[in-house]
Structures are given as structure tokens and as C-alpha cells.
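Folding problem:
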Amino acid sequence: MSGCRVTPSAFTRPDAVGGADVADDKTKAAPQTAELISLTEEYEIAYWRERFGVSDDRLAEAVHRAGLSAAAVEAHLKLSERVN
């Protein structure tokens, strides 16, 4: 991900009614876009950290190596567990 900067605007979704972008609802414990991992919001980091059972640093390293896809990060973490 060298040279790639992740911004909160990268994690908006079109509003079903008006077609405008709507950011995640931060009052929820889980991200609204559960297919992608965002490391820009503390509540999302906490969700993914708990879901995968890893530290912040391990989560960030896995996202750096596998990308933003939750499935790819999960696969990377599982493979890393088998290797170690």
C-alpha cells in the first residue's frame, strides 16, 4: 500500500434514497461496510481488533500486507497463525 492514503471519504456509501454519500453511523459498534476494513475510526479499529482477536499493531500490519478486504485480512491472519 505504499503511496496509498486511506481517507474516511473512501468508506462512504451511496444513500439509497437521495444518491448522496453517507458516512458510517458512528453510534453503531460495527462498521456499516463490513467487507472493508477502515483504520481511520477508533470504533472500527476496536470492532476489527475484537473480531480477529489481535492487537492494533497486528491489525494494521495485516491490513498493510493484505489490503482493505476483510476476507483477505482474515485469510492473512489465519495463514500467519499457521506459520508461527
About this structure: The mean pLDDT is 77. The longest helix spans residues 70-83. Residues 8-83 form one domain.
